[in-house]
Structure formats: structure tokens, C-alpha cells
Amino acid sequence: MEHRTAPGLFDIIPNDPKESWHNSHLWNFVEATVRSVMKNYGFQEIRTPIFERTELFEKGTGKESDIVTKEMYTFKDKGNRSITLRPEGTPPVLRAFIERKLQSQAPIHKLFYIGPMFRYERPQAGRYRQHHQFGAEAIGNASPEQDAEIIDMLCTIFSKLGLTNLTLHLNSLGNENCRSAFHEALCRFLEPQADKLSADSQRRLKTNPLRILDSKEEQDRKIIVQAPMILDFLDKESHEHFEGVKKRLDSLGIAYEVDPLLVRGLDYYNKTVFEITSGELGAQNSVGGGGRYDGLMKQLGGPDLPTMGFACGLERVIQTLIKQEVPYPESPKPTVFMIGLGDKAYDRCFSLLHDLRQEGVSAQMDFTGKKLSKVMQYAHNLGARYTMVIGDTELEQEAVDVKEMESGESQKIQLEEVIRFFKRKELREEPLHEMIHVLMENIVNLLGGLPGGGTEGVLQFLQNLVLGSQKRDYSQNGEPEDEDND
Question: Going from the N-terminus, what domains does the chain have, and what CATH number goes with each?
Fold first, then answer.
């Protein structure tokens, strides 16, 4: 029997020649960027179990949401409890916050998560039954500035990753009073046309009419464009909040499009909602989004604290990186590969291997004892920058020839100097792209920025220059992208 992954699943492996977005070093790069930006914005990581009691999602995500009605992986455990693999991150984070009484530690909490989620969806591009998300929750602050900070943070993550051609969509769903008035007006508009709606929208008309605005069905879209708009129903408080969010985004130079049809796919949103889309992903074009969900904490049995957050699919982000040919670090490769010829030389290599690694040098060694030509080919396939062959002669002379694989040139190094030699190589060569990026950011900050959005263009140019051996040439792209699209 051949064992294969179940439908809608995939493996993340070191090198997949068919699907490069499965390559683990690319995932590591994106996750490291996310963690770095989250740290700069003061967000701390939270990790919750991958399954929870089913009622958490029924109450938190919404009984009438597509996730709960169609997509959850739910089962009975041996204690006859209804258990669900988490389909999203927000309810588990709030459950942990309430259960651990985190509100007693501080008035404001900024949390982020990275991990797998599970939804029984029809497998298609950008949608998988086990997918991965990173997200953030800002708890305890109801100000427009908090909304703008969350949006700015996600835009910064995408900017640091090098993504372009992105559009920020923005809307406000108002507070409960606004939505109640809008709900009535929307139903009055849609009910006479119910027979023209899709089957899903006819069901939603009875359960959650706002979700009809989110429909992608062409027959629904033709009707929706004539429908009342939520922005016309905002009360003074909701209107001022939305204007405050836009004001802060304007002050940061973050471009957006107000989209009155944007409601997001979850029932708990209120006031600010946003979504960032990519021009490279086709129908499933959202790469991330979120909004405010004041009241959800109380609904789950906790204190009545305002909350704002977002979630973002790692798969779509990585696929967009590849489609846009964004430069990213290559897979890790050993700095040196060592070969020991004879028992004494083998023992010396093995000890040296340990010592190099303890000093932070990426090193590997041949354990197979195969012919030298085959071992050298293996070192080449690994991408080793240098090789060392140590035999009886090298032990007698206490010196070894270090061969640079790319040029074929060799230089003799005393064995006692090997560790110092490769430590210098690691410091000088390995983090070069990171050093240049940080250096240029500091220079630009000192100069007060460049006109016309040139800062990111300069950074992108240098990044392409350093990593360009496997990526696109900046000269093919003309002038830097307009930062308004971020």
C-alpha cells in the first residue's frame, strides 16, 4: 500500500523541485520576518493547542459562519466531548487570555501567533485543509490609533518581505446600533429579490444578511451594487472612529481604498475591517485581513475589553513572493565539508567538526567512506563553499588545503587556524544581505528619507544586488514601485 497525504494537505520539505513554495527555508524566512516585525511593534508570541472544545468556535466564530456550518473538523473524543481542530486563531487566543486571567497582569496586551489551522474546504489554489496563519491580537485599547497600528504592522511585514502590487481595502461596520439599522434596511432591499440570489445568499438572508455583501457569485454582485451601504448608517461615534483610523493611515503614507462592501467572513467584526489583496492570486486574492471585534471577549465569558487584530495565510504570502520574483535568501548551505582519509584523520575531522559547529560555523563531514570523487560530488550537491581533505600527510604537516568549490582555488591553512579562518568567513559573508539592509535603513533614517518613496526602492535595489544571483534584475523593473500600493 502506498501512503500519501490526504486531500488538501502538503509537506514542507528542504527542497521541492516541482513546488518551490513547499521549500522549508522560504517558510523560515517569512516566519523570521514576521517575528522580527512583531517584536519591533511590541507583540509577544502566544501558542495555543491545535484543538479546542467545539462550543468555543460556535460561540466565537459564529454559528452561521461558513467556517462553523461547513468547514470545521469536529469529532467526539474518548470522553464523549465534542472537539474541533482550530479553524482560526482568534477564539483560542481569547480563550487563553480569559482562562489565564491575563487582564490582571497589565491593561494592554499585544499578542501574536504562528501555526496550522484546519478547514474542510474544497482543495484549490491558496486553500488547503491544513493551512498556516500568522496573526495578531491587540487587547485593551479601543482607539483608532490601535487600529492603524495593526494595519501598519501588517503592511510593514509585507514591505519587509518585498511584496508589491498590494491593495489595502478599508471599511467600517459600525457599532451594534449601526448594524441593527443597516440590517433592517438591507433586508428590506434584498427580500423582494430573494429568488434572484444564489442558494447560499438565500440562506444567509435568513441567518446573516451582511454576509451576502461578501458573496463572489456574479448573480449576487449585480444586486449588491444597488444595495444600501453601511457607511451611510454610521452614528457619530463610529464615524469619528473611522475618520480617526483613516487620518492615522494618511499620516503614515499608507494608501487605502474605502470598500463599503467589505464585511470579512467572520461574524464577530465591528467598526474597522480591512483586507489586503494581491494582483497575482486570481480569485483567491486576499493575503491577509482583520478588524475590530469589541465585545467578543465578553461574549466568550471574559472581561469586556476591546480587541483589534488580523490573520494572514502563510501559503498565499509565500506563493505571492514567488509569483512576484521577490528576492529571498537561498537555502542554508554548509560553509565547509570535510573528508577524513584513514582512521586518525577521520578522528581528527570528527573532533574538528564539533569544534567548528560550537563556534557557529556551518560544517559537515563525510560519514560514508565512499570514493573521494563521489564524496566531492556530494559536497558539491550540498552547495558547500569549501572542502577540506585530511589524510596522513596533512596530520604530519599540521596543515590542510582548503579548496573553494566555486573557483577551484586552494590555500594551505594550519590545522590550528582552521576554526579562526572559517569564523572570519561566516562573519564576512553569511549575513551580508541583512547587514546592507540594516545599514541602508539607518542611512536613510539619518538623511530624513528620500523624496518620492525612494527609500524602499534603494533598499530593494541593494537587496536585489546582494541576492540577485538567483533572482530578478532590478534594471528590468524600471523605477521603484509606488509605495501607495502597500
Answer: 20-175+235-323 (3.30.930.10), 336-429 (3.40.50.800), 435-485 (no CATH)
